[in-house]
Amino acid sequence: MAGLEEEDYLITEGDSLSGHDNNARARTMPAICDPSHLLHRIVVLVFMCFLGFGSYFCYDNPAALQTQVMQDMQVNTSGFMQLYAWYSWPNVVLCFLGGFLLDRVFGIRLGTIIFGSFVFVGQIIFASGALAGYFWLMEAGRFVFGIGGESLAVAQNTYAVNWFKGKELNLVFGLQLSMARLGSTVNMNIMGWVYDHIKDFMDSAGHTTLGISLMIAASTCLFSLMCAVMLGYLDRRAERILNKEAGKTGEVIKLTDVKDFPLQLWLIFLICVSYYVAIFPFIGLGQVFFIEKFDFSPAQARAVNSIVYIISAPASPVLGFIVDKTGKNVLWVACAIVATLGAHMMLAFSFWNPWIAMCLMGVAYSLLACALWPMVAFVVPEHQLGTAYGFMQSIQNLGLALIAMAAGSILDNKGYLILEVFFCACICMALIAAVMLYFVDLLRGGELNLSSSARARLLKNDSPHSE
C-alpha cells in the first residue's frame, strides 16, 4: 500500500470497469470504506488491537483464580503451575513454525482465523475440564490454547506491518501492546469478582462455579476470533481495491544459521530466559503470596499483582523512545535487571508495602523489553533475524515451562521465602550474563553499547552511499 499514488488507491472492487469509471465511482466512496483513507485504517486498527485481547485475557486466568483453581480442583501448587507449563510446551516448537505456516501454508488471513480458533477452542476445553472436574482436561485445554496464542501474536504484528508500514507503525505497535496489557489487567481484576458472583448465585463454590467462570472468560476469545474474521475480510477487500500483496511475516527460519550465532547473541538468550522466568511464574503465583505475607484481601492482592502489566502499557512506548534516543542498550538492560533484583529482594526480605516493589518491577520489566530485544538486530545480519528471534522465543518458552514446574514444586515443599530466593538467583544469573555481554561486546568493538549518535555515524559509514 505504501508508495502508491492517490489516484492508484481510488479504484473500486469492479475489476472490469475502466480506469476513468473506477475513479469516478471511488470519489463517491465514503472515507470509512476507502482502504487508502486514514479513517478506514483506524477501523482496521481497532480490530487489530482486539485480535489479541482474548488471548492475553485468558492466558492469566489461572493467576487470577489461583486459590479457586487449587481448592476446587484439589491440586497443589506444583499441579497448578502445570497450567502454565502446558501453555509453553507447544511454543518451544511453534516459534519456528508459526511464521512459516502463516507465510507458506495458510496465508495471513486463514492462518489468523485458525490460530484464533485454537485459542478459543483451547479455552473452551480448559473451562470444560473445570466443569467436569477433570484437571487433566484443563491441562489439555491449555496445550491447545498455547498452540494458537504465540502464533496469533505473530499474525497481529504481520497485519500491523501490512497496513501501517511507512506510516504510523511505531504508534500501532505501542497501541497493540497497550491493548494486550489491558487484557491481562482486566483479567487480573475481574475474574475473581466473576467467580464470587457466580458462587453467590449458585449458593456454593466448586469446580462447576470455576468452569462457568472460565466459560464466561472464553467469550473474550470468541470476540477476538470474530475480529480475526473481520480482519480477513477487510484485508482481502483492500487487496482487491488497492492491488496489493497479502502480508508476509518476514520471518525466514533456517536452523543451520544457529551455528553462526555470535557469543553476544547467546548471552542475550541467557539474559532473556533468566530474566523472564523470574517475572511470569512469579505473577502466576503472586496473588496468594500477597494474601499470605501482607495480609491483603483477595481484591487488593489481584490489584497489586496486576500492576506490572498496568505500568508496562504506558511505560513501554515512553521507555522505548528514551532507549532509542540514548542508545547504551547493555547499560539499560543491566539497570533493569538490578532494579528487578531489588524488587524481588524487597518482597522476599522485607515487609515494606509491596506496591513499591511491584511498581519498580513494572518499570524495570518494560525497560528490559525495550532495550534487550532490539539488540538481536545489532549482532546478526538481516537474513538471520527470523531464526534468531524464533530461537530466542523458543528458549524463553522452554525456560518458562521448566521453571513453572520448578516454582510450583519449590513452593509446595519450601515455601514462598525459598521461592523468592530462587527467583533472585535467576535474576543474578541474568545480571552476570549482562556483565559478560558488556565485556565481550567491548572486546569485539562495543557496538551493542554505543550511544544513539555513535550508532548513527556507524550506520552512515557502513552505507554504500558513504563511499
TrEMBL record:
Homodimer. Interacts with lysosomal protein GLMP (via lumenal domain); the interaction starts while both proteins are still in the endoplasmic reticulum and is required for stabilization of MFSD1 in lysosomes but has no direct effect on its targeting to lysosomes or transporter activity. One of its GO terms (cellular component) is lysosomal membrane. This is Lysosomal dipeptide transporter MFSD1. Its main location: membrane. It is a multi-pass membrane protein. PROSITE patterns: MFS (PS50850). Belongs to the major facilitator superfamily. InterPro entries: MFS, MFS_dom, MFS_trans_sf, MFSD1. The chain crosses the membrane at residues 38-57, 83-102, 114-137, 210-234, 265-291, 303-323, 330-349, 355-379, 391-411, 417-440. Keywords: Lysosome, Membrane, Transmembrane, Transmembrane helix, Transport. It is found in: Lysosome membrane. The lineage of its organism: Eukaryota, Metazoa, Chordata, Craniata, Vertebrata. The keyword tRNA-binding does not apply. The keyword DNA-binding does not apply. Residues 38-444 form the Major facilitator superfamily (MFS) profile domain. Lysosomal dipeptide uniporter that selectively exports lysine, arginine or histidine-containing dipeptides with a net positive charge from the lysosome lumen into the cytosol. Could play a role in a specific type of protein O-glycosylation indirectly regulating macrophages migration and tissue invasion. Also essential for liver homeostasis. CDD domains: MFS_MFSD1 (cd17340). It catalyses: L-lysyl-glycine(out) = L-lysyl-glycine(in); L-alpha-aminoacyl-L-arginine(out) = L-alpha-aminoacyl-L-arginine(in); L-histidyl-glycine(out) = L-histidyl-glycine(in); L-lysyl-L-lysine(out) = L-lysyl-L-lysine(in). It comes from the Eukaryota.
